[in-house]
Design goal:
This protein is an all-alpha fold.
Amino acid sequence: MMNNAENIWKKRVIEYNQELQKYLKYMFNDHLLFVLIFALGGAAFTYNQWVKILDPTFPAAYIMAAILGLILAWSPVYTFLKEADAVFLLPLENRLSGYFRKSIWISFMFQSYIQLLVLAALMPMYVAVSGNGFKSFFPLLALVLAIKVWNLYVRWFMLRFQEKEAHWIDGIIRFLLSGTLLLLVLSEASIVMIMAVALIMAVYFFYFYHTTKKKNLKWDLLIHLEQQRMLMFYRIANMFTDVPKLKGKVHRRKWLDFIVKTDFSQSESYRNLYLRSLVRTSEYSGLYIRLTLIGAVLIYTNQSFIVNILTALLFLYLTGFQLVPLYKRFDYKIWVLIYPMSKELKTSSFKKVLNQSMMVQSILFSLPLLIKGMWMEGAIILLAGFVFSILFSQYYLIQRLKKMDSSFYL
């Protein structure tokens, strides 16, 4: 049985890595890397300028403790379980301790990269305020990783409880304990206080370790959480390529009927189809709304006009780029394939829908500046957004759709 469990573990990890690699090669393409380099470069420059004006009274320790505490409390355990396991592995639960121990540690390996990046990003702020220098980075990293292990194990113990309330309360407690310990260390509090919080965390750990020892695994819960975790990844991947395993939800959204009202003539068939899909399908409408809101908030909170223009253009590009897969959404629907219309009409209809969507987004990006009374700046962003939308749909989109059509008809 131990050999079988080992084989199952190895097979599941290999399959998981293959699934990740299959979609990551589409996600991290040349276009996204260019945007990421551009965005990160701009963010790093702005962050560096901001750090220079901080004074010793700035609550850097509190901000770091809150951010790291949230990330540490978020500690999903990657079990790689499938629906059939509830039947075939359930009788062997007592012999799978090694399988789940490896699940905890591989979860730690994946999530430790996040802790490393976040701590590295926050360190300049901490150094500027505390004056301790970057020599404290590695001791802090060791502490953060140790707290991550604690969070993962406590989370695993709590997964033997079915009640959602228990999981919520546990998450809040782990956030408070993790954040408090980090705050005390970052604030250079007395060793007595640090050891007191560490002792509370140890008691919390051993209490649930002994309490859950005789509890059975909640297989349905573990499988559901694993499915939700993969679903989140598929939703992100679907922004860049088609994901067959992802089934989007369709919502009526009656309050948006005024948008999808259109002429039901033959020439408007594809436009009607794409417009309704954009408005009513969760993955596309959700993507559009999220990017629009994030971009508008960034524009409203930023004081630099140049950064605001670049932000608007960046989010317009991200929206247009990630809505392109909508073009092929109906390629395998038989009732669409028998439409007595040309492929050129399909292409022009999609181009019109995408262009109009980006123009509406341009209007929404100009609103934050208009609300602040910056009429000239808002008008410039609106005009720049319109020009970018036209250029995107007339040049980039046409070339992209030609490649998609050629690959489909091969």
